[in-house]
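Think of the structure tokens as a kind of shorthand, similar to the way a musician reads notation: each symbol stands for something richer, in this case the local conformation of the backbone. In the example below we present two proteins back to back. Begin with the first one, reading the sequence and then the tokens, and try to describe in your own words what changes along the chain.
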Amino acid sequence: MHDVVVPDVVLSSGEKMPLIGMGCAASPLPPPDVLTSIFPEAIEVGYRHFNTAEFYGFEEALGRAVSEALDRGLVESCNQIFITTKLWCTNAHPGLVLPALKNSLQRQGLEYMDLYLIHWPLRLKEGTEGLDLKGKILPFDVEGTWEAMEECSKLGLAKSIGVSNFGTKKLSQLLHATIPPAVNQAMKRIYSI
């Protein structure tokens, strides 16, 4: 295998993030054996950044793939893989952020997350499944939730923290935080252009 060079960017946290990554969302969810084979193949061809979320249902398969990549010598250490995961909206509450991150780390077999994002700038009732949000949206404490994200960073469980799908109004509430967001990830499907 030849080395593939993917450009990276240095985030405000000081961490380097590969600019090209593999998004890990699909509907319907492929069978586990398919997932387990996709990710090591992606690593073999040069992908080093994987973007997942609790909501996508891919975290365990990605964790197994990183372990397999290490076993096969495709990468020498977990430090060569950059993983982004996201806090789902049912956990977007100050008291739920840290437990949710710990669960994501456990599912992936990791000690820390490279980048941990608030998935959407809203909070949903516990147990909400799918994207039918009628009657399920709760008040969102953006600043309190962000302070819990900062705690994840201070504990070393997330090297960088950020947001996803935030508009300027919500994002502006965080710009003077102790640790400002390193990323505001915005979804864009190439096929919808």
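Once you have a description of the first chain, move to the second and do the same.
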Amino acid sequence: MSALLCSRQVLLLNSRRTQLGFFQKNDFFILKSFTSIGLFESNEKQQEEKYSFTVSYLINSCGLSPKSAILASQSERMNFESPERPDSVLNLLKENGFTHTQISKIIRVEPLFLLSDPEKTLLPKIEFFRSVGVSSSDLPGILSSNPMLLGRSLEKQLIPCYDFLKSVLLVNEKVLTALKRSPRAFQYNVTTNMAPNIAHLRQLGVPQSTISFLVSNYGSEAFTTHTRFVEAVHQVMEMGFDPSKMVFAQAIQVLVRMRKQKLESKFELYKRWGWSKDMALSAFKRKPICMLLSEEKITKAMDFLVNKMGLQSDNIAINPATLSFSLEKRIIPRFSVIQILLAKDLVKNDLSLLNILWPNESRFLEKFVIKFQDDIPQLLSVYQDKKDLLEVGSQSEKVCVAEQL
């Protein structure tokens, strides 16, 4: 029995020595583990502080919403502790005429600009655009509408793009027009997009005047992918558009943006309002933009003009641009004025859409409002309030659109 007890004591002692040895041999490991945990917690705290500072800066100095600031700070590269570099970026933009709103827009699109070297990255682009004739008043608007231009390579992208546009448009003023209307045009690749698209038009015999109009006004569509561009041009040619007319360029712009299936759905929509396929195609040839209008806008305008005003649907097809006018700001107020005048027998019942909707603001006021103010003092109020103060279509007299517009 005593021998058995002694044996157990020896085993217990050896076990304690083994455990002690483990701790003695691994004390560095254990200490290191606890130290690592401490360092991890410390680093995590520092990251939280950086993150908090970044978000706060984006909100307070750049005008971003909390949601936008949080999204912008998700990138690890966006976390910064000091305002020195971001401040230098904001100061450079302010010194070059950018408003707080424009700066906010730029940073919202590309927050990493805040960490760039403003003198090396941003200033050369600003100076380049000024050197080619962009005015100091126009430049902030152009760059804030397409901030990625500030991130493009000057030598590899912006200068080659400008040189190519100058070779196509010939006149610097037209290049500046293209830049103002389609800043994105300066982001396309000259070799893969720009040059092949222009070459394709020239191979088809499209005159310089039409090419110049297309590039100046619809640069983004003119320099879309070559395959898409060729497809759109082929459709336009098949529809019988004349390449010598400006409307040829407008049709290209529409068909680059709209797939064939979508175009067919617009034809079907117009068909439901009484247009035949030929009428819809004729309207498209007159004013291609009528196919870019939303289904809701087309439906509301046609409902008002046809159902409430009693106009013939085919007369609208003759002047499809009518549908592009604002229903609330132009169509309803003007027809309200005309209805009042008709009810008082102050105008003849043979007015056309051209008479009513096409005159500019001052001309319409002079011809239909100011002229009759003595007879109807409230007429100006009806027009300026942009309200349909009469129940549209309730009058016995409705506008009769002339057969020949």
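Compare your description with these statements about the second chain. Residues 239 and 281 are 8 Å apart (CA to CA).
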